Amino acid sequence: MGKLRTELMTINMGPQHPSTHGVIRFIIDTDGEVIHRCEPDVGYLHRSIEKITEHLSWQGIVPFTDRVDYLCAMNSNWAYVMAVEKMIAVEVPRRAEFIRVMVGELNRISSHMIAIGTTDMDMGAFTPFIQLLREREYINDLLEMVSGARLTYNYLSIGGVNYDIPRNWLFKVEEFLNHFDPAMEQMNRLCTYNRIFINRMANLAPISKELAFDYNLVGPNLRGSGVKSDVRRDQPYSVYSELDFEIPVGEGFGGEVGDCYDRFMVRILEVRESIKILRQCIKMMPEGPIQAKVKNTIKPPEGHFYSRSETPRGDTGYFIESSGGTSPYRLKIRSGSFTGISITPAISKGILIADLVAVIGSLDIVAPELDR
Amino acid sequence: MSLDTNAILERLKAQAPALRLELQSGAGDLAIKAEPHDLAELMKLCKSDPELKFECLASQTASHYPKTETTGEHFKLYYHLLSHSLKHQLVVVIEALGSAPEVDSVVSVWNAANWLERETWDLLGVSFKGHPDLRRIMNPEDWEGHPLRKDYVIPTQYQDIDNKPSEIAESFKLS
């Protein structure tokens, strides 16, 4: 018998790969089926949104933020308009704030559904994905009722929202929540609490608190490592300070703290908190105007501003430098997927190729947000 | 205990009197302005000091200022630090002179800086001394120029692919 060949083999995963959740390429050095080195290669979806914004009016940038993260376009809109409102010091009417919280949380639920569903699907469980997409249709319908669009809404405006909610919308949302609560529980029984699924996800690629800080993980990925950090609590914006909700963190639900199952579970628990917030908003929704008075030509003062907001992908930072003109001098979007993917080389050494799929799924990477 | 920018500046001055720091105030966020050669030491101190504890580099970016009649060409680099345990944040601004400046890398302090600095290099052409792997990240490897510079000219051709603006695009020409 000849000598066994033991050198490493370099293989490509992506950019066109169903489990990389978008156009991302991984260059993997494999030792048999074990990953020796994994290097993400990004930039395939770079559309130079930051450059484009330097030529647009302040209001004209809002539709572009839809395309930064299309799974939660409402939250992307919100992150941007909040930054501009901070710059020009506009007070948003109370009713508009509540509408924003409602559409934001609905969009958070629908984004987490995709995250949860695709992770299940990558692990081989196809049914929960289809089931969650069916539920997501209801949310798309609800958001279509307020904005007229199903994916890229362009609904939030600087100083408020573009349209008031339809007359029976709050009733429709409540109807959806009553239907969705048990449906989510059914999905959990089907997959989340399934022993096979837990065995697959638990103890896989744990991220310690220190490592998460070092790579600046944000949002559910950071909370999965047991850090109680949420911009909605740490720096309450909008009306979040009046609302009652918990911040779920990873506690080692299936094994070690900060493993793939913890990150997955945090999203499941967050959906419940969002439902709680929505139910409170339905009761508290005030009457009044939906748009503050904002000049047609916005000219923010000279200076630099950094605004944080909690999107489903975590703390999203909009850094805007203004030279006092009608468009930004420099706009940078610091997204959660960007840091989420940069940690993969550090946590994927020594795991199986099939497990890398679970790691990417649990980090909830959205390629367009990563590349911008 | 969470501190505001003024208190952080006091603390930094007390801990490292050799650093030349000043408060930058204006319409926007309060920031601490530092000299480029102090950067590495300042960042190490920000992370290790028990009263500051900046565990995270939240964002790192830069903006380009071309040569004008009164000022030379320069870049402003922004570092946004965040402390989860003490719930405070800090903006550090650095002015780097020249058309292709080089500043110290902070990858040895936070690994998050690795990709952020690569992005700044790719899009603006600011290079970082001591960075382990300074390559392009968003643009292809053979791309020429740094798109987010103010003097960047959009190429008319890339790898035999024509990129001439169409007549319609010309009629809506951006400023």
Keywords:
heterodimer; A: 372 residues; alpha+beta; 3-stranded antiparallel β-sheet; 15 helices; globular; B: alpha/beta; Beta Polymerase, domain 2; two-stranded parallel sheet; 9 strands; 27% strand
Report the uncertain regions of chain B. Answer: none
CATH architecture of chain B: 2-Layer Sandwich
Structural class of chain A: alpha+beta
* Shape assignment of chain A: globular
**Into which percent range does the helicity of residues of chain A fall?**
40-55%
Mean of residue pLDDT of chain A?
87
Structural class of chain B: alpha/beta
How does this model look, in words?
Chain A: Keywords: Cell membrane, Membrane, NAD, Quinone, Translocase, Transport, Ubiquinone. Chain A: It is found in: Cell membrane. Chain A: It is an enzyme of class 7 (translocase). Chain A: Belongs to the complex I 49 kDa subunit family. Chain A: Its EC number is 7.1.1.-. The complex is a heterodimer of chains A (372) and B (175). The relative contact order of chain A is 0.19. In chain A, helix 3 packs antiparallel against helix 4 and helix 6 packs antiparallel against helix 11. Chain A is α+β, with helices and mostly antiparallel strands and 372 residues long. Helices cover 48% and strands 13% of the residues of chain A. Chain A has one domain: Cytochrome-c3 Hydrogenase, chain B (Orthogonal Bundle). Chain A is globular. The relative contact order of chain B is 0.14. A 5-stranded mixed sheet of chain B has the order 1-2-5-4-3. Chain B has one domain: Beta Polymerase, domain 2, CATH 3.30.460. Chain B contains 4 helices and 9 strands, in the order H-E-E-H-E-E-E-E-H-E-E-E-H. Chain B is an alpha/beta fold and 175 residues long. Classes of the chains: A alpha+beta (372), B alpha/beta (175). At the A-B interface, helix 8, strand 6, strand 7, strand 8 and helix 12 of A face strand 3, strand 4 and helix 3 of B.
Write the layout of secondary structure elements.
The complex is a heterodimer of chains A (372) and B (175).
Chain A: E1 9-13, E2 25-31, E3 34-41, H1 49-53, H2 62-68, H3 73-88, H4 94-122, H5 127-147, E4 156-157, E5 160-161, H6 169-192, H7 195-201, H8 209-214, H9 219-224, H10 231-234, H11 260-284, E6 303-311, E7 314-322, E8 330-334, H12 336-342, H13 344-347, H14 353-363, H15 367-371
Antiparallel strand pairs in A: 1-2, 2-3, 4-5, 6-7, 7-8
Helix pairs in contact in A: 2-3, 3-4, 4-5, 4-11, 4-14, 5-6, 6-11, 11-14
Chain B: H1 5-15, E1 21-24, E2 31-34, H2 39-48, E3 56-65, E4 74-83, E5 88-97, E6 102-104, H3 113-124, E7 127-129, E8 157-158, E9 161-162, H4 167-171
Parallel strand pairs in B: 2-5, 6-7
Antiparallel strand pairs in B: 1-2, 3-4, 4-5, 8-9
